[in-house]
Structures are given as C-alpha cells and as structure tokens.
Amino acid sequence: MDIDFGKTGLVLEGGGMRGVFTCGVLDFMMDRRIEFPYAVGVSAGACNGLSYMSRQRGRAKYSNIDMLDKYHYIGLKYFWNQHSILDQHLLYELFPNEILPYDYQTYRNNPARFEMVTTNCVTGEACYLEEKDDKERLIAIVKASSSLPYVCPITYVDGRPMLDGGIVDSIPVLRAMRQGYGTNVVVLTRHKGYRKTEKDIRVPRFIYRRYPKLREALSRRCQAYNEQLELVERLEDEGKILAIRPESPVTVNRIEKDTRKLTALYDEGYACAAKALAPFLPAQE
C-alpha cells in the first residue's frame, strides 16, 4: 500500500497500561516528524495522543512509567477518597498543570484535528469529542475517555455522564473513515489474531441502575471488541490500513505496575513503528 501521511488518519486503541506500546510508536513518529491531519484516540490512546498532538516527545512515556514508579498512582487505596482505582487528582490536575505541564498552546496551534472517544451513559453510544480552546473541557473529555467502568467514577462532559470510550468503540477506525480518511494508520495494543475468550454476561440491574443503555453496552463488550478486531484484519488485508501492533502476546495487563515490563513494551512499540513505517520514509543519512 501507499501512504501519504498528509491524507491519512491515525487511530489509537486504548488498553490501559498496554498503551505504553502506543507511547513508543508515537515517540518514533515524533522523532521522524510524521504528522497526520486527523487522529482519533480512545481511553489510553486519547491520553497518549494528546502528548503527540502537543509535540511533547517522551511526555506520555514519563506519565506511564516514570511517574508510576515515583507516585504509584494505581491502587485500591484511591477508592477511599476518589472512588477510583487511579489517583485522578494526580493524573488530571497535578500532572498537566504542575508536574510536566501540558503545552496547550502548541496543541491549539496544531492544525490537525484530534477526536477522543467517550461512552454516553444515557444513550449507551459512542461520542467523538474534540476541544482546543477550553482547557477544563479538554481535561474532562480525556478523563471521561479513560474512566474505566466499575473502577472509576462517571465523568460529566457538557453536563452529560460519560465513561470509557472503549466500552463501545475500542478501535475507532470506522469513525476515521467516516471523517473522510480512506487510509489509516491504526495503532493496536494486542498482537495479530488476538480475540477475547471470555463470554459476555448480562450486567445486573443494580449496577448503573440509572443507565440501562450503558448496561446493554457493557453486556456485549467482548463481542463488539472481537468484531472490531475482525474488521481491522479485513481492512488490513484489503490494504486500507497499516496496522502497528505488538508482534507477540502482551503480558502487560490493564493496570500493570511492573515498570520493567512497561519499559520493554514501550521499546517494542518504538521498534515496531520503525519497522512498519520504514517503507514510507526517506532513508536517514
């Protein structure tokens, strides 16, 4: 396939801490100055994509590995005061504003569009949101996109209750195509051929009792994800997407705390990006 990056979309899957693979991919892209006119990210893909859009090379890796090692921001202890398995105060307030400030100006000046996927708890449908001017709304969107069901509180965006976009649209390649990008680079966090083996179960009515449509979406997550993986592999065979994914099964889990494993997965992402994108890049001197 031929790729003109100026006419190609970028799609970033989520996957919690498996997203460090994506960090490696995006750092390679920044090292080689690969830019896209449109990108869409979900959950961890939205978080990591924001650092790519602000051209802050290494920032996503720092937040996922170095900062985890220093602040230990994953744990049940945060349920006591934040009702979350993550230290959301650290991640969405201290980190972007104080620890390693987000470059809002560069992001605002970037001509590329960046959409982040959330799930509307009322409708049970995916929302594709973007923001470049309102800092608080931007943080609310990325926070909602990454708010895992059951273990993170619902986040409100524009007064609407939202959760992780991966509930409904884990790999938003169809969204990119509907935005006019017939060719896309898709960054995945599972190896080729992976399928969820667990069975979907009906979510009891006492869970998210105010949101029956959300319960329906949660009750078919595995099937929906496997269908998206099948779509990705079909589009790949048809030459419509370039998929960058781990080459072997990933042992890093969604809330992984082992920074050695995370660093190895980051390095694999960088290497896989170099391998996959080499045919479309000029040779380095």
**Arithmetic mean pLDDT:** 96
Q: Mind summarizing the main beta sheet?
A: 8 strands, mixed
Oligomeric status of the shown chains?
A: single chain
Shape: globular
Features:
285 residues
Describe the protein.
This protein is globular. Helix content is 41%, strand content 13%. The chain has helices at 20-31, 44-53, 59-71, 79-82, 88-99, 104-109, 135-145, 173-178, 212-218, 221-237, 259-277, and strands at residues 9-12, 38-42, 113-120, 126-129, 155-157, 160-164, 184-187, 241-244. The mean pLDDT is 96. It is built from 11 helices and 8 strands. By secondary structure, the protein is of the alpha/beta class. 43% of the residues are buried. Strands 1, 2, 3, 4, 5, 6, 7 and 8 form an 8-stranded mixed beta sheet that branches. Helix 1 (20-31) packs parallel to helix 2 (44-53), helix 1 crosses helix 11 and helix 3 runs antiparallel to helix 11 (259-277).
In short:
With 285 residues, the protein is of the alpha/beta class. Helices cover 41% and strands 13% of the residues.
